[in-house]
Model the fold of this input.
Amino acid sequence: MATLFELCSLIRSKNAGPFVLTFDLMFSSRENYERAKRAQPLTKAGLATMYGQREEDITLVYHDHALAIKASMPRPIFQGELPDSDCYGGQQYVPLLHLQVD
Amino acid sequence: MEVRVLAATGVLGAGFKVESLKRGVELKPTFIACDAGSTDSGPAYLGTGKPKLSREACKRDLRLLLKARDVLKVPLIIGSCGTSGRDAGVDWMAGIAREIAEEEKLHFRTALIRSDQSPAYLKQRFEQGRIKPLNPAPQLSEQVIESSHVVGMMGAEPIAAALADGAEVVLAGRASDSALYAAVPLMMGAHPGLVWHAAKTLECGAACAVVPAADGMFAVIRGDHFEIEPLDLAARCTPQSIAAHTLYENANPFLLTEPSGVIDTRDAEYSALSDRSVRVTGSRFNKTQEYTIKLEGAQLVGYQTVIIGGIRDPYIIRSLDTLLPKAKAYFDERIADLFPGQLSSEDYDISYRIYGRDAVMGRLEPMRHSSPAHEVGVLITVTAPSQELANKISTFVSHVSAHLPVPEYQGIISSIAYPFSPPELPRGPVYRFSLNHVVVPDDPFEMFRTEMVEI
Done:
């Protein structure tokens, strides 16, 4: 077992415009990427639970050239709304760091 | 056929190395472009029309680019002037350009392309059902249109038209970042798939390099491929870093929407041309039936005053969940008492963010019920219809928050440590993003106004 943090060279969250939150997981080697692609540590259902979303609103793609997994979803709180505490959406990836990969 | 593209940096005002631009000039670009805006820093810039980066920083970059352009006699395209791309941002950038022209004895024919959208135009299109929500979108109404400042995000067409009309410099309002880089190659008849994919890759400058930097990139678009490299010879890009850039700030890296169609990178192939440059083939551009212009709108929410403090006492920290709602109930009573008939509970907002607990992720925080931190930071925000009201309310909010009735103690106690006197910091107007919609215009030009000026 390994965590996504151990397999990736970069894990980040970011605004994709003010209304969409996106997560990029860049793997540090093709081997690590292929391992995650087989084990599928991220699922739409899992993300939906973690971030309070509907599964059908979540985009989840594997990018073989970029050695990356990307997930996007409606921003749980739109950027700049009074209760939004993360203007750039930059600190929302933390619950993904220690997800286990077989 | 080849088009040689110099991308100066990710955002005008962020800077770039003089050496990098010099090398870019030596590579004989067909044109130079640079984006100058973003919504990433929040709705305040669109709301106020004030730029995010300093005038000095923008002037430094623009001066170097105007001089480079003058040496090469090629077009310089700057988009989303003044961060938001509001008309005020275009005028601000034009003012800087005029100053530079005078100081450097430069002359250039300049197109100012304005992108503010009038409520009258938007209401007409809204009534016609030609404003459509993206997913997700806030609810749109006439009231929202009337109370928002709205810009349209132009495609490549108005920029190309200005260049065809003889513009040497284009200072555009809100524009698709990629359109700044796509306009010239499309005019020259380059392959749209390659053009748009190259444009998308270039728009953040050397953000796609290893290591990412605020610096320039250079691309050459030819018949069936484009080649790309960072201008700084010490920087590299790799097939992975170029492929990965399609992920940046986008929802889907394979399908990227522009006004006239969708960039499709699903069959793109990336190969290393050298240890620092990459060749890309196979990108497509699927023209859509319907031409769409994305709208961005900012609406005034109110005026804000903030209070910053910290709590160290574990007995106070553990009681916050019961103490803060009590404090808020008291504030409601106090406001009703002090401002009778002036403020109803929907007119103001008093919020506590407890840093050290769940301030960053809120209800999504997976550790919100874990053992408390030994110290927490407190950020109180008071939002009201005027700055004066926000300030007045915040004076008793700060006072009461500093004297919470902690059950463990019999007498009065200072329950929050404030670093500042006074603790209340007026923050001015606050805005929200009020639209995530597209307009279906009659043509790519109707929403944008081009003015030709000699500078």
